[in-house]
Design goal:
Mean pLDDT: 89
Largest sheet: 5 strands, mixed
CATH class of the largest domain: Alpha Beta
CATH architecture of the largest domain: Alpha-Beta Complex
Number of domains: 3
Strand order of the largest sheet: 2-7-10-4-5
Structural class: alpha+beta
Shape: elongated
Radius of gyration: 26 Å
Oligomer: single chain
CATH superfamily of the largest domain: DNA methylase specificity domains
Distance between the termini: 19 Å
Number of strands: 21
Order of helices and strands: EEEEEEEEEEEHHHEHEHEEEEEEEHHEH
Length: about 375
């Protein structure tokens, strides 16, 4: 008995089996273009890819062989398939120019279906794993999948109408994610501008005056310490007191201790290894490890976080870049004349950070929803 080709989740009204097709049937043979000078072409370069959008060069000299692409084509990047870069070629703004792409893009034309359906299919984890299985004989970030082998793979396709419904759903999700990322980037840019203006006293909160004074951190801190080793026997995946290292992912949390901690919050941690010099406020009690630096002071912690992040790290001149207690202690920071002004500045940036975290969380939730739908709506 033939197994039915149907996904776990479908739009209401669709019951037909899906059909398998080889990717080579959708592959668009490249029309190569010799190096030229032009002011009428848009060029998709590789590997530049900013927030899901290829880097676009307008009116530039085309210095190497490219391939012609058309609106509605689906571009799949060969380079580093773990990132899984996919792009549907659409008009940019009001521009209706012919377009060319690097030959590192593999071009597909789903003429009997929907471009956004094909883009969503290519974006799935299952498809990415297939691409990774076709990488051979290369290492590093510039590894490429073998085009000829990938084109022999079969994928399942529904009717054109069902493809359009599925494609429209994932296109809307991608647009929502892109809009949230634009909002996030604008907010980060605004934060950067405000930090620069406030810490150079170009702008101040109303009612505050007087000169800021430059002081060494060691003269303003109660203590500056470095974290020690992890006690693996005590480390839990969940618990009461976080164990924090230098990583920026997962808020730096490595695990938890149930009954003990080293630092009473609030305090400011500063990464001493990896991406060095990043300060962050820790409200609750915690244990720092793997040489994470910790500053305790009488200053507003959110102000101090901003002040430290404005500094360029003073690194030890060793083989592995690292920030040490003596180097951090010698940071020269500017402080306003009153604690009230510190609190106002700290509160402002704490609110901005909370908003950034909320937008990041929203993006993560949408991306998780998209991932779940990709698993259920494709075969």
């Amino acid at each position: 008995m033939t197994k039915k080709l149907q996904p776990k989740l479908r739009f209401r009204g669709f019951t037909d089996d899906w059909e398998q097709r080889k990717l080579k049937d959708l592959h668009k043979q490249p029309l190569l273009i010799e190096p030229i000078r032009t002011a009428t072409y848009l060029s998709w370069s590789v590997p530049a890819f900013n927030d899901g959008v290829p880097e676009i060069a307008r009116g530039s000299e085309i210095a190497s062989v490219k391939q012609s692409v058309g609106f509605g084509d689906v571009l799949l990047c060969r380079i580093n398939p773990r990132i899984n870069r996919v792009w549907v070629v659409e008009p940019v703004g009001n521009a209706n120019f012919p377009m060319i792409a690097s030959t590192e893009w593999v071009v597909f034309a789903n003429e009997d279906g929907d471009s956004h359906f094909l883009s969503a299919l290519f974006s799935s984890d299952r498809f990415r794993n297939m691409l990774l299985s076709e990488v051979a004989g290369v290492t590093g970030s510039q590894k490429r999948f073998q085009v000829a082998s990938v084109l022999q793979h079969e994928e399942s396709f529904p009717s054109k109408l069902e493809q359009k419904r599925i494609g429209a759903l994932f296109s809307k999700l991608d647009q929502l994610i892109a809009a949230e990322k634009r909002t996030l980037n604008l907010l980060k840019d605004k934060k950067t501008a405000l930090l620069q203006q406030i810490f150079t006293q170009k702008i101040r909160f109303k009612g505050f005056s007087g000169f800021w004074k430059c002081r060494r951190l060691k003269d303003e801190a109660i203590s500056v310490i470095a974290g020690g080793d992890i006690d693996r026997d005590m480390l839990l995946s969940s618990g009461r007191y976080p164990v924090i290292g230098n990583a920026l992912t997962n808020n730096g949390v490595i695990g938890y201790y149930e009954k003990t901690y080293e630092v009473i919050g609030p305090a400011v941690t500063v990464t001493g290894r990896g991406e060095v010099g990043i300060a962050k406020v820790r409200e609750g009690n915690f244990t720092p490890v793997v040489r994470l630096l910790v500053v305790k002071s009488v200053h507003n912690p959110y102000f101090l976080e901003c002040a430290i992040n404005q500094c360029r790290p003073l690194l030890e001149s060793t083989g592995v870049p690292q920030l040490t207690v003596p180097k951090l202690s010698n940071y020269e920071l500017s402080f306003p004349p009153t604690v009230s002004e510190e609190m106002s500045i700290g509160s402002l940036f704490n609110n901005i950070n909370s908003l950034i975290a909320a937008i990041n969380h929203k993006i993560e939730l949408i991306e998780l929803k998209k991932k779940s739908l990709l698993e259920k709506m494709f075969i």
